[in-house]
From TrEMBL:
Annotated source species: Streptantibioticus silvisoli
Coiled-coil ranges from the UniProt annotation: none
PANTHER family, A to Z: HTH-TYPE TRANSCRIPTIONAL REGULATOR ADHR, REDOX-CYCLING DRUG-SENSING TRANSCRIPTIONAL ACTIVATOR SOXR
GO terms for MF: DNA binding; DNA-binding transcription factor activity
Annotated HTH merR-type domain residues: 34-103
Protein name per its UniProtKB record: MerR family transcriptional regulator
Signal peptide limits: none
Highest taxon in the source lineage: Bacteria
SMART domains per record: HTH_MERR
UniProt keyword annotations, A-Z: DNA-binding
Pfam family, one: MerR_1
InterPro entries named in the record: DNA-bd_dom_put_sf, MerR-type_HTH_dom, MerR_fam
SUPFAM superfamilies named in the record: Putative DNA-binding domain
Length: 156
């Protein structure tokens, strides 16, 4: 995954991960670079309330608005939401995701801190994957045991 810096509508640089298309498991809307909140809801599976909350807590970059105040999401916003979905899937705490978003907005001088945050999270994910593998082994053992066991005769 690469990162690009491009100016947003506010003139501030916005750094977002390069897309891995349809990473959420749904087809991406046609590349118009202008999406309504309902289109983003359909694409991400997130609620409009959650998208507004992400914006309020600083997890989303500035979202452009029409002259009537309606949110207009860009392809970069969808790319960012794809990345956030991956972080959520790995169990990253919201506070850490918000911190990462803040670091991205602060610019390139925060690369080291971003790296440290992601490396620490990756280690946590690896620990949890190992725990899940161990747990899967126990389940496999129990399933094999019950699959080969003779049922006990019923008592009358």
């Amino acid at each position: 995954m690469t990162v690009t810096d491009t100016p947003g509508a506010t003139g501030r640089a916005r750094t977002v991960p390069k897309p891995v298309r349809a990473t959420i498991g749904r087809p991406r809307p046609q590349a118009r670079d202008q999406y309504t909140i309902s289109e983003v809801v359909a694409y991400t599976g997130l609620s409009a309330h959650t998208l507004r909350w992400y914006e309020r807590i600083g997890l989303m970059p500035h979202i452009d608005r029409t002259h009537t105040g309606q949110r207009r999401y860009s392809d970069q916003d969808l790319d960012w939401l794809d990345f956030v979905a991956k972080l959520r899937l790995t169990g990253m705490p919201v506070a850490d995701m918000v911190r990462y978003a803040e670091l991205v907005r602060e610019g390139g001088h925060t690369y080291r801190e971003r790296l440290e945050l992601l490396v620490a999270h990756r280690e946590d994910v690896r620990r949890r994957v190992a725990e899940l593998r161990d747990t899967l082994g126990v389940l496999d053992f129990k399933i094999d045991f019950y699959a080969g066991a003779e049922p006990a005769p019923e008592r009358h």
